[in-house]
Amino acid sequence: xxxxxxxxxxxxxxxxxxxxxxxxxxxxxxxxxxxxxxxxxxxxxxxxxxxxxxxxxxxxxxxxxxxxxxxxxxxxxxxxxxxxxxxxxxxxxxxxxxxxxxxxxxxxxxxxxxxxxxxxxxxxxxxxxxxxxxxxxxxxxxxxxxxxxxxxxxxxxxxxxxxxxxxxxxxxxxxxxxxxxxxxxxxxxxxxxxxxxxxxxxxxxxxxxxxxxxxxxxxxxxxxxxxxxxxxxxxxxxxxxxxxxxxxxxxxxxxxxxxxxxxxxxxxxxxxxxxxxxxxxxxxxxxxxxxxxxxxxxxxxxxxxxxxxxxxxxxxxxxxxxxxxxxxxxxxxxxxxxxxxxxxxxxxxxxxxxxxxxxxxxxxxxxxxxxxxxxxxxxxxxxxxxxxxxxxxxxxxxxxxxxxxxxxxxxxxxxxxxxxxxxxxxxxxxxxx
Length: 433
Description:
Helix content is 41%, strand content 13%. The protein is of the alpha+beta class. Residues 215-428 form the FAM20 C-terminal domain.
Protein backbone atom coordinates (compact mmCIF):
# COMPACT_ATOMS: atom_id res chain seq x y z
CA UNK A 1 0.00 0.00 0.00
CA UNK A 2 2.83 2.38 0.86
CA UNK A 3 4.60 1.65 -2.44
CA UNK A 4 1.35 2.21 -4.33
CA UNK A 5 0.81 5.60 -2.65
CA UNK A 6 4.37 6.60 -3.49
CA UNK A 7 3.82 5.59 -7.11
CA UNK A 8 0.54 7.50 -7.37
CA UNK A 9 2.16 10.54 -5.77
CA UNK A 10 4.98 10.40 -8.30
CA UNK A 11 2.40 10.12 -11.05
CA UNK A 12 0.68 13.28 -9.77
CA UNK A 13 3.95 15.21 -9.70
CA UNK A 14 4.83 13.94 -13.16
CA UNK A 15 1.40 14.97 -14.37
CA UNK A 16 2.05 18.53 -13.17
CA UNK A 17 5.35 18.65 -15.01
CA UNK A 18 3.93 17.16 -18.19
CA UNK A 19 0.84 19.36 -18.56
CA UNK A 20 2.83 22.45 -17.56
CA UNK A 21 5.33 21.79 -20.31
CA UNK A 22 2.67 20.98 -22.90
CA UNK A 23 0.72 24.16 -22.23
CA UNK A 24 3.81 26.33 -22.10
CA UNK A 25 5.64 24.59 -24.95
CA UNK A 26 4.75 27.10 -27.70
CA UNK A 27 5.62 30.04 -25.51
CA UNK A 28 8.75 28.47 -24.04
CA UNK A 29 10.18 27.64 -27.44
CA UNK A 30 10.51 31.33 -28.20
CA UNK A 31 12.18 32.26 -24.94
CA UNK A 32 15.68 32.12 -23.62
CA UNK A 33 17.18 29.24 -21.69
CA UNK A 34 16.99 31.47 -18.63
CA UNK A 35 13.18 31.59 -18.93
CA UNK A 36 13.04 27.81 -19.23
CA UNK A 37 15.29 27.40 -16.23
CA UNK A 38 13.09 29.59 -14.06
CA UNK A 39 10.01 27.62 -15.03
CA UNK A 40 11.71 24.30 -14.33
CA UNK A 41 12.90 25.56 -10.95
CA UNK A 42 9.29 26.38 -10.10
CA UNK A 43 8.21 22.88 -11.04
CA UNK A 44 11.05 21.34 -9.07
CA UNK A 45 10.04 23.34 -6.01
CA UNK A 46 6.97 21.10 -5.78
CA UNK A 47 9.26 18.09 -5.53
CA UNK A 48 11.71 19.36 -2.92
CA UNK A 49 11.01 16.46 -0.59
CA UNK A 50 11.84 13.82 -3.21
CA UNK A 51 15.32 12.41 -3.64
CA UNK A 52 17.23 13.25 -6.82
CA UNK A 53 16.86 9.72 -8.21
CA UNK A 54 13.09 10.12 -7.84
CA UNK A 55 13.18 13.33 -9.87
CA UNK A 56 14.77 11.50 -12.77
CA UNK A 57 12.13 8.79 -12.51
CA UNK A 58 9.31 11.35 -12.43
CA UNK A 59 10.53 13.32 -15.42
CA UNK A 60 10.82 10.18 -17.52
CA UNK A 61 7.52 8.55 -16.60
CA UNK A 62 4.96 10.87 -18.20
CA UNK A 63 3.75 8.12 -20.54
CA UNK A 64 2.44 6.21 -17.49
CA UNK A 65 0.30 9.03 -16.18
CA UNK A 66 -3.37 8.21 -15.81
CA UNK A 67 -5.94 10.88 -15.16
CA UNK A 68 -7.86 8.45 -12.94
CA UNK A 69 -4.81 8.00 -10.69
CA UNK A 70 -4.53 11.75 -10.20
CA UNK A 71 -8.24 12.01 -9.38
CA UNK A 72 -8.13 9.17 -6.87
CA UNK A 73 -5.06 10.56 -5.14
CA UNK A 74 -6.69 13.98 -4.77
CA UNK A 75 -9.97 12.50 -3.56
CA UNK A 76 -8.09 10.48 -0.98
CA UNK A 77 -6.38 13.65 0.24
CA UNK A 78 -9.42 15.92 0.46
CA UNK A 79 -12.27 13.59 1.34
CA UNK A 80 -12.66 13.69 5.11
CA UNK A 81 -13.47 11.11 7.76
CA UNK A 82 -16.28 12.43 9.96
CA UNK A 83 -15.64 9.64 12.46
CA UNK A 84 -12.08 10.86 13.12
CA UNK A 85 -11.52 10.79 16.88
CA UNK A 86 -10.29 14.01 18.50
CA UNK A 87 -8.15 14.02 21.64
CA UNK A 88 -9.12 17.56 22.63
CA UNK A 89 -11.83 20.16 22.05
CA UNK A 90 -12.65 20.55 18.35
CA UNK A 91 -12.99 24.28 18.91
CA UNK A 92 -9.51 24.53 20.42
CA UNK A 93 -8.01 22.60 17.52
CA UNK A 94 -9.67 24.86 14.94
CA UNK A 95 -8.63 27.99 16.82
CA UNK A 96 -5.01 26.88 17.10
CA UNK A 97 -4.87 26.16 13.38
CA UNK A 98 -5.41 29.79 12.40
CA UNK A 99 -2.31 31.79 11.52
CA UNK A 100 -1.91 35.09 9.67
CA UNK A 101 -1.40 33.10 6.43
CA UNK A 102 -3.96 30.28 6.65
CA UNK A 103 -7.14 29.17 8.41
CA UNK A 104 -6.51 25.44 8.27
CA UNK A 105 -3.21 23.62 7.70
CA UNK A 106 -2.42 21.58 4.62
CA UNK A 107 -2.63 18.34 6.57
CA UNK A 108 -5.71 18.39 8.78
CA UNK A 109 -7.22 14.94 9.40
CA UNK A 110 -8.89 16.38 12.50
CA UNK A 111 -11.09 18.47 10.21
CA UNK A 112 -13.47 15.53 9.85
CA UNK A 113 -13.97 15.41 13.60
CA UNK A 114 -14.52 19.17 13.72
CA UNK A 115 -17.20 18.97 11.03
CA UNK A 116 -18.87 16.15 12.98
CA UNK A 117 -18.93 18.37 16.08
CA UNK A 118 -20.51 21.19 14.09
CA UNK A 119 -23.18 18.81 12.85
CA UNK A 120 -24.00 17.19 16.20
CA UNK A 121 -23.16 19.52 19.09
CA UNK A 122 -26.11 20.94 21.00
CA UNK A 123 -27.12 24.54 20.31
CA UNK A 124 -27.04 26.43 23.62
CA UNK A 125 -28.01 29.92 22.43
CA UNK A 126 -29.38 31.64 19.32
CA UNK A 127 -29.44 35.30 18.30
CA UNK A 128 -29.89 37.50 15.25
CA UNK A 129 -27.08 37.57 12.71
CA UNK A 130 -24.09 39.84 13.19
CA UNK A 131 -24.50 42.87 10.87
CA UNK A 132 -24.68 42.40 7.10
CA UNK A 133 -27.38 42.48 4.45
CA UNK A 134 -28.44 38.82 4.49
CA UNK A 135 -30.66 36.74 6.77
CA UNK A 136 -28.70 34.58 9.20
CA UNK A 137 -28.49 33.58 12.84
CA UNK A 138 -25.62 33.61 15.30
CA UNK A 139 -25.55 30.38 17.30
CA UNK A 140 -23.39 29.11 20.13
CA UNK A 141 -22.70 25.38 20.25
CA UNK A 142 -21.94 23.26 23.27
CA UNK A 143 -18.40 24.05 24.35
CA UNK A 144 -18.82 27.76 23.67
CA UNK A 145 -18.15 27.84 19.93
CA UNK A 146 -19.85 30.63 17.99
CA UNK A 147 -21.09 29.87 14.46
CA UNK A 148 -23.12 31.59 11.76
CA UNK A 149 -26.19 29.78 10.44
CA UNK A 150 -27.20 30.59 6.86
CA UNK A 151 -30.62 29.14 5.96
CA UNK A 152 -31.64 27.46 2.74
CA UNK A 153 -33.64 29.76 0.49
CA UNK A 154 -33.52 28.10 -2.92
CA UNK A 155 -33.72 24.70 -4.53
CA UNK A 156 -30.33 23.61 -5.86
CA UNK A 157 -31.55 23.93 -9.46
CA UNK A 158 -32.73 27.51 -9.01
CA UNK A 159 -30.91 29.93 -11.33
CA UNK A 160 -30.29 33.50 -10.18
CA UNK A 161 -31.05 35.86 -13.06
CA UNK A 162 -29.99 39.47 -13.43
CA UNK A 163 -26.66 41.10 -12.70
CA UNK A 164 -23.76 38.97 -11.39
CA UNK A 165 -24.29 39.96 -7.76
CA UNK A 166 -28.08 39.52 -7.66
CA UNK A 167 -30.09 37.40 -5.27
CA UNK A 168 -29.95 36.28 -1.68
CA UNK A 169 -27.15 34.11 -0.32
CA UNK A 170 -26.95 30.49 -1.41
CA UNK A 171 -26.10 28.53 1.74
CA UNK A 172 -24.76 25.58 -0.26
CA UNK A 173 -22.29 27.94 -1.91
CA UNK A 174 -20.53 28.41 1.43
CA UNK A 175 -19.94 24.66 1.73
CA UNK A 176 -18.76 24.22 -1.84
CA UNK A 177 -16.50 27.28 -1.58
CA UNK A 178 -14.86 25.97 1.59
CA UNK A 179 -13.95 22.63 0.06
CA UNK A 180 -12.92 24.23 -3.23
CA UNK A 181 -10.50 26.46 -1.32
CA UNK A 182 -8.93 23.33 0.17
CA UNK A 183 -8.56 21.68 -3.23
CA UNK A 184 -7.01 24.86 -4.68
CA UNK A 185 -4.65 25.00 -1.67
CA UNK A 186 -6.02 28.46 -0.88
CA UNK A 187 -6.87 27.66 2.73
CA UNK A 188 -8.34 31.06 3.53
CA UNK A 189 -12.05 30.25 3.83
CA UNK A 190 -13.76 29.60 7.19
CA UNK A 191 -14.84 26.04 7.92
CA UNK A 192 -18.40 25.35 6.71
CA UNK A 193 -20.74 22.37 6.86
CA UNK A 194 -24.43 21.68 6.28
CA UNK A 195 -26.83 20.93 9.12
CA UNK A 196 -30.53 20.25 9.53
CA UNK A 197 -31.91 22.28 12.45
CA UNK A 198 -35.26 21.93 14.19
CA UNK A 199 -36.33 25.53 14.70
CA UNK A 200 -38.89 24.61 17.35
CA UNK A 201 -36.77 22.26 19.45
CA UNK A 202 -33.25 23.60 18.88
CA UNK A 203 -33.66 27.34 18.27
CA UNK A 204 -36.81 28.74 19.86
CA UNK A 205 -36.00 27.09 23.19
CA UNK A 206 -32.70 28.99 23.48
CA UNK A 207 -33.33 32.11 21.35
CA UNK A 208 -32.95 35.66 22.57
CA UNK A 209 -36.13 37.73 22.55
CA UNK A 210 -35.06 39.90 19.61
CA UNK A 211 -34.70 36.79 17.43
CA UNK A 212 -37.72 34.99 18.86
CA UNK A 213 -40.05 37.88 18.03
CA UNK A 214 -39.25 37.44 14.31
CA UNK A 215 -40.66 33.89 14.21
CA UNK A 216 -44.01 33.24 12.54
CA UNK A 217 -46.00 30.38 11.00
CA UNK A 218 -46.97 29.95 7.37
CA UNK A 219 -48.92 26.94 6.07
CA UNK A 220 -48.09 25.05 9.26
CA UNK A 221 -44.36 25.63 8.69
CA UNK A 222 -42.13 27.40 11.21
CA UNK A 223 -40.54 30.53 9.73
CA UNK A 224 -38.41 33.51 10.78
CA UNK A 225 -37.22 36.73 9.17
CA UNK A 226 -34.49 37.83 11.57
CA UNK A 227 -32.85 41.24 11.49
CA UNK A 228 -30.57 42.50 8.73
CA UNK A 229 -30.42 45.29 6.16
CA UNK A 230 -32.72 43.42 3.76
CA UNK A 231 -34.87 41.75 6.43
CA UNK A 232 -38.27 43.50 6.26
CA UNK A 233 -40.70 41.18 7.96
CA UNK A 234 -42.46 37.95 6.98
CA UNK A 235 -42.29 38.76 3.25
CA UNK A 236 -38.49 38.39 3.41
CA UNK A 237 -38.49 35.46 5.81
CA UNK A 238 -37.58 31.83 5.27
CA UNK A 239 -39.63 28.78 6.23
CA UNK A 240 -38.70 25.30 7.34
CA UNK A 241 -40.38 22.13 6.16
CA UNK A 242 -42.54 21.70 9.19
CA UNK A 243 -40.05 22.80 11.81
CA UNK A 244 -36.82 21.46 10.25
CA UNK A 245 -34.71 23.86 8.22
CA UNK A 246 -31.63 23.06 6.15
CA UNK A 247 -28.73 25.45 6.35
CA UNK A 248 -25.00 25.92 6.62
CA UNK A 249 -22.93 26.47 9.73
CA UNK A 250 -19.84 28.62 9.28
CA UNK A 251 -17.29 28.48 12.08
CA UNK A 252 -16.52 31.83 13.70
CA UNK A 253 -12.86 32.80 13.50
CA UNK A 254 -10.92 33.01 16.80
CA UNK A 255 -11.81 36.17 18.67
CA UNK A 256 -8.17 36.97 19.45
CA UNK A 257 -7.83 37.77 15.74
CA UNK A 258 -9.38 41.14 14.94
CA UNK A 259 -10.51 41.60 11.37
CA UNK A 260 -9.71 44.73 9.39
CA UNK A 261 -12.00 45.77 6.54
CA UNK A 262 -10.53 47.12 3.29
CA UNK A 263 -12.14 48.57 0.17
CA UNK A 264 -11.40 46.22 -2.71
CA UNK A 265 -9.43 48.06 -5.42
CA UNK A 266 -11.49 46.24 -8.06
CA UNK A 267 -14.85 46.89 -6.38
CA UNK A 268 -17.94 47.59 -8.47
CA UNK A 269 -19.91 50.82 -8.19
CA UNK A 270 -23.24 48.95 -7.87
CA UNK A 271 -24.78 51.89 -9.75
CA UNK A 272 -26.47 51.37 -13.08
CA UNK A 273 -24.59 53.15 -15.86
CA UNK A 274 -21.63 54.17 -13.68
CA UNK A 275 -18.39 52.32 -14.33
CA UNK A 276 -15.63 51.88 -11.79
CA UNK A 277 -12.15 53.20 -12.61
CA UNK A 278 -10.79 49.72 -13.22
CA UNK A 279 -13.42 49.18 -15.90
CA UNK A 280 -12.21 52.11 -18.03
CA UNK A 281 -8.53 52.69 -17.19
CA UNK A 282 -6.09 50.48 -19.12
CA UNK A 283 -3.30 51.42 -16.70
CA UNK A 284 -5.33 50.70 -13.58
CA UNK A 285 -3.22 47.80 -12.32
CA UNK A 286 -0.03 49.85 -12.65
CA UNK A 287 -1.62 52.60 -10.54
CA UNK A 288 -2.65 50.05 -7.91
CA UNK A 289 0.90 48.71 -7.71
CA UNK A 290 2.18 52.21 -6.93
CA UNK A 291 0.25 52.19 -3.66
CA UNK A 292 2.28 51.19 -0.61
CA UNK A 293 -0.09 48.37 0.27
CA UNK A 294 0.37 46.66 -3.10
CA UNK A 295 3.91 47.63 -4.11
CA UNK A 296 5.53 44.85 -2.10
CA UNK A 297 4.47 41.88 -0.03
CA UNK A 298 1.69 39.39 -0.65
CA UNK A 299 -1.41 41.58 -0.94
CA UNK A 300 -1.62 41.92 -4.72
CA UNK A 301 -1.00 38.20 -5.25
CA UNK A 302 -3.69 37.46 -2.65
CA UNK A 303 -6.07 39.73 -4.58
CA UNK A 304 -5.35 37.78 -7.77
CA UNK A 305 -5.72 34.40 -6.04
CA UNK A 306 -9.06 35.57 -4.68
CA UNK A 307 -10.16 36.77 -8.12
CA UNK A 308 -9.47 33.32 -9.57
CA UNK A 309 -11.37 31.69 -6.70
CA UNK A 310 -14.32 34.09 -7.06
CA UNK A 311 -14.49 33.59 -10.81
CA UNK A 312 -14.65 29.82 -10.40
CA UNK A 313 -17.54 30.05 -7.94
CA UNK A 314 -19.27 32.94 -9.73
CA UNK A 315 -18.98 35.42 -6.85
CA UNK A 316 -19.02 38.98 -8.22
CA UNK A 317 -19.83 40.62 -4.88
CA UNK A 318 -16.46 41.04 -3.14
CA UNK A 319 -16.65 44.82 -2.77
CA UNK A 320 -14.56 44.73 0.41
CA UNK A 321 -12.12 42.23 1.85
CA UNK A 322 -10.90 41.40 5.35
CA UNK A 323 -7.44 40.77 6.74
CA UNK A 324 -6.14 40.02 10.21
CA UNK A 325 -5.39 43.34 11.86
CA UNK A 326 -1.83 43.93 13.13
CA UNK A 327 -0.35 41.47 10.62
CA UNK A 328 1.14 43.14 7.56
CA UNK A 329 1.51 39.78 5.82
CA UNK A 330 -2.06 38.66 6.58
CA UNK A 331 -3.95 36.66 4.00
CA UNK A 332 -7.08 38.03 2.43
CA UNK A 333 -9.72 36.02 4.27
CA UNK A 334 -12.25 34.72 1.76
CA UNK A 335 -15.37 35.36 3.84
CA UNK A 336 -19.00 35.51 2.77
CA UNK A 337 -19.16 33.24 -0.24
CA UNK A 338 -22.94 33.01 -0.28
CA UNK A 339 -23.25 34.94 -3.56
CA UNK A 340 -21.68 31.99 -5.35
CA UNK A 341 -23.06 29.26 -7.63
CA UNK A 342 -26.05 31.34 -8.65
CA UNK A 343 -26.02 30.97 -12.44
CA UNK A 344 -24.12 28.07 -14.03
CA UNK A 345 -24.76 29.45 -17.52
CA UNK A 346 -22.97 32.76 -16.98
CA UNK A 347 -19.21 33.32 -16.69
CA UNK A 348 -18.67 36.84 -15.35
CA UNK A 349 -15.28 37.62 -16.89
CA UNK A 350 -14.95 40.96 -15.08
CA UNK A 351 -14.31 39.08 -11.83
CA UNK A 352 -10.92 38.14 -13.33
CA UNK A 353 -9.90 41.78 -13.91
CA UNK A 354 -7.03 41.69 -11.37
CA UNK A 355 -5.58 38.69 -13.23
CA UNK A 356 -5.84 39.88 -16.82
CA UNK A 357 -5.06 43.53 -16.07
CA UNK A 358 -1.97 42.77 -13.99
CA UNK A 359 -0.96 39.68 -15.98
CA UNK A 360 0.52 38.11 -12.86
CA UNK A 361 -0.25 34.99 -10.88
CA UNK A 362 1.51 33.01 -8.20
CA UNK A 363 3.45 30.17 -9.74
CA UNK A 364 2.12 27.68 -7.19
CA UNK A 365 -1.45 28.78 -7.97
CA UNK A 366 -0.85 28.33 -11.70
CA UNK A 367 0.62 24.87 -11.21
CA UNK A 368 -2.30 23.89 -9.02
CA UNK A 369 -4.77 24.98 -11.68
CA UNK A 370 -2.93 22.93 -14.29
CA UNK A 371 -3.34 19.77 -12.23
CA UNK A 372 -7.08 20.37 -11.87
CA UNK A 373 -7.94 20.92 -15.53
CA UNK A 374 -9.67 18.51 -17.91
CA UNK A 375 -12.54 17.68 -15.55
CA UNK A 376 -10.39 16.77 -12.55
CA UNK A 377 -11.54 19.76 -10.48
CA UNK A 378 -15.25 19.00 -10.73
CA UNK A 379 -14.83 15.30 -10.05
CA UNK A 380 -12.64 15.80 -6.99
CA UNK A 381 -14.95 18.49 -5.58
CA UNK A 382 -18.06 16.41 -6.22
CA UNK A 383 -16.59 13.44 -4.36
CA UNK A 384 -15.32 15.64 -1.54
CA UNK A 385 -18.79 17.10 -1.01
CA UNK A 386 -20.38 13.68 -0.53
CA UNK A 387 -19.28 13.71 3.11
CA UNK A 388 -21.61 16.60 3.93
CA UNK A 389 -24.90 15.51 5.54
CA UNK A 390 -27.11 17.74 3.39
CA UNK A 391 -25.52 16.31 0.23
CA UNK A 392 -27.29 13.01 0.93
CA UNK A 393 -30.70 14.61 0.43
CA UNK A 394 -29.80 16.90 -2.46
CA UNK A 395 -26.31 17.18 -4.03
CA UNK A 396 -24.70 20.42 -2.90
CA UNK A 397 -23.78 21.32 -6.48
CA UNK A 398 -25.76 20.35 -9.56
CA UNK A 399 -24.10 18.86 -12.61
CA UNK A 400 -24.42 22.22 -14.36
CA UNK A 401 -22.50 24.00 -11.61
CA UNK A 402 -19.78 21.34 -11.66
CA UNK A 403 -19.49 21.69 -15.42
CA UNK A 404 -19.27 25.46 -15.00
CA UNK A 405 -16.28 25.03 -12.68
CA UNK A 406 -14.34 23.12 -15.33
CA UNK A 407 -15.34 25.59 -18.04
CA UNK A 408 -14.27 28.57 -15.95
CA UNK A 409 -10.99 26.92 -15.03
CA UNK A 410 -10.19 26.63 -18.73
CA UNK A 411 -10.95 30.33 -19.15
CA UNK A 412 -8.50 31.19 -16.35
CA UNK A 413 -5.80 29.05 -17.95
CA UNK A 414 -6.43 30.71 -21.31
CA UNK A 415 -6.01 34.19 -19.82
CA UNK A 416 -2.73 33.20 -18.19
CA UNK A 417 -1.59 31.71 -21.49
CA UNK A 418 -2.34 35.02 -23.22
CA UNK A 419 -0.21 36.78 -20.62
CA UNK A 420 2.62 34.32 -21.31
CA UNK A 421 2.50 35.18 -25.00
CA UNK A 422 2.50 38.89 -24.21
CA UNK A 423 5.13 39.12 -21.46
CA UNK A 424 6.80 35.72 -21.07
CA UNK A 425 6.25 33.22 -18.27
CA UNK A 426 9.15 34.56 -16.19
CA UNK A 427 7.34 37.92 -15.91
CA UNK A 428 3.90 36.47 -15.28
CA UNK A 429 4.63 33.70 -12.76
CA UNK A 430 5.49 35.11 -9.34
CA UNK A 431 7.43 32.87 -6.96
CA UNK A 432 8.22 34.76 -3.77
CA UNK A 433 5.13 36.81 -2.96
